[in-house]
């Protein structure tokens, strides 16, 4: 929580400092023009890169493969677009790094490794095939969240057997 507070306060302060510094060097109107220009360029670049990654993601899904790095790259493109629309030069530099096709895979690998380590250490828990229901009848008037986990380990050999069990249980 403290880290988020520091990020949300220190980054804008640093961005304002950079904007004032650059405006002293090249002028206020030119600085404003650069900020607006990076926003437009970033939006169009994010759109084109997003389409390219979306095509790769769809190709992977169509061939029956799970998208791995493509989904992380799609998130990085979204983040890069948001950062480029945010006024400031430091966020623009990081946003461009998220958008460039030669730097984005490096950042994506770092992000994937980071999350894989956190999942292995138990710091991130994820559920699959969850059904959620809410119980509004608790004694304090607050609702209780009930999660019914229906996850199973599936191998290619057992997939057909599980699918037939699911189909027969739905008919009953």
Structural account:
The protein is mainly alpha-helical. Helix 2 runs antiparallel to helix 3, helix 2 (28-62) runs parallel beside helix 4 and helix 3 packs antiparallel against helix 4 (89-99). The chain contains six helices and two strands. The termini are far apart. Helix content is 70%, strand content 7%. The chain has a domain at 12-120. A two-stranded antiparallel sheet has the order 1-2. The chain has helices at residues 2-26, 28-62, 69-85, 89-99, 104-120, 156-171, and strands at 130-135, 144-149.
Low-confidence stretches: 132-138
Provide the spatial order of strands within the biggest beta sheet. 1-2
Strand content: 5-15%
Order of secondary-structure elements: HHHHHEEH
Q: Assign a percent range to the helix content.
A: over 70%
Main sheet attributes: strand count, strand direction, barrel closure: 2 strands, antiparallel
Q: Quickly give the structural class.
A: mainly alpha
Distance between the termini: 49 Å
The number of helical segments is 6
Coarse shape: elongated
Radius of gyration, Cα only, in angstroms? 23 Å
Q: What's the total number of strands?
A: 2
Give the averaged pLDDT, no decimals: 78
């Amino acid at each position: 929580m403290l880290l988020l507070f520091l990020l949300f306060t220190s980054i804008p302060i640093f961005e304002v400092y950079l904007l004032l510094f650059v405006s002293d060097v090249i002028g206020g109107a030119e600085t404003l023009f650069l900020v607006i220009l990076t926003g437009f360029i970033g939006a169009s670049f994010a759109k084109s890169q997003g389409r390219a990654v979306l095509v790769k993601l769809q190709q992977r899904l169509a061939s029956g493969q799970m998208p791995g790095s493509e989904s992380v790259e799609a998130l990085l493109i979204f983040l890069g677009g948001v950062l480029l629309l945010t006024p400031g030069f430091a966020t623009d530099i990081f946003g461009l790094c998220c958008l460039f096709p030669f730097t984005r895979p490096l950042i994506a690998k770092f992000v994937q490794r980071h999350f894989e380590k956190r999942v292995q250490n138990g710091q991130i828990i994820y559920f699959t095939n969850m059904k959620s229901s809410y119980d509004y009848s608790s004694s304090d008037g607050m609702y209780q969240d009930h999660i019914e986990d229906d996850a199973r380990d599936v191998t290619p050999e057992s997939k057909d057997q599980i699918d037939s069990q699911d189909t027969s249980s739905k008919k009953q």
